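Hey,
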Amino acid sequence: MSNTETKEETEAEAEPAEEEIKEAPAEEVEAEEEAQPETEEPERPEPPAAAEETPEGEEEIEVVEEKVYTIPLRHVWVVTPRGRRAPRAVRDVRNFVARHMKSDEVAVSNEINSEIWSRSINKPPRKITVRAVKDKEGKVIIYPSKGA
């Protein structure tokens, strides 16, 4: 055997091996695609039937009790340092409503929060009128009063 014959034979043998190598990954990729099912986004649970959106963007809840309170906050100005008045006012509003509505779960709406914080941390309002709504589960949500 001469060197030219060996080279030709080696090249002839090498070519099918390269083709097999090129084809093998393609087959493996197809097999992997078949093995992995297409992932779909998980279904999101629907909101409860009792909480429906109204045109105003406010959720409707089954109201058990609804009351309007004018909450005095003047003591916040006296007993609290200037830099802590607004957070103290929010806590006092929450505690006042919890005490009067006899509930442990009280949520303050964004409107009430922004009304208290409207004049910064130093100067919350001296009093605020709120509407407290209690649902059948005993949770109370505080909204601004309709008249104010």
